[in-house]
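Problem: given the chain below (206 residues), write out its structure.
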Amino acid sequence: MTLKLQDVRDLPAEWIIGPYVPTTGLLHPLTNLQRLDVYYHQTFLTAGAYVFRIAGAGIDQARGSPSQWGGGMEGYGKRLGSRYGTFVIASTFHAFGNGVMGYEPRYDLCRCSHFWPRTKHAIARNFAVYNRTERELRPAIPLYAGSFGAGMISSVWLPGPRNAWKQGGYAALEQAGFGSVYNITSEFAIDILRKITGNRYPKELH
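Solution.
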């Protein structure tokens, strides 16, 4: 079965930015089954998850890091596989930690207007999330613990002598940077796409 352009246009915004809470939506505690569904979509069925890994691998390729993997498509493939593998591990740790602590795993679009308030909201959500009350913000410990742990594990397959603690630190720092950029992209993605398509796409949750 072929996916036509119209089918792509009809895909919901969730396919682009992952599970989210719209500005008109109500935050409510998620069941374990709902958390599993959010994890599955965030990790495997969200375009942004792949785009950011592809971009990260491209930066690694341009920097020649790790140098032992060389250049060309083979080197890029290894870097992309490493990036995505680390992401899947981090996402798994993140989902587990959020479930244990009762933290909100979805991104909630800002109920404010104007560029800077929305940008600040997006960055803030990379460092603080709602707890099980869906009203109180708490430090996003599972997010950074998951990134740190995944970075440590990545030292197993990265070539050359690697310090697992240092790799974990790098991964946590990348989460601070890339995570903020990803949230900003998510915050404005629907507006940009609706502007481009004459307010027709993508479909938004209600």
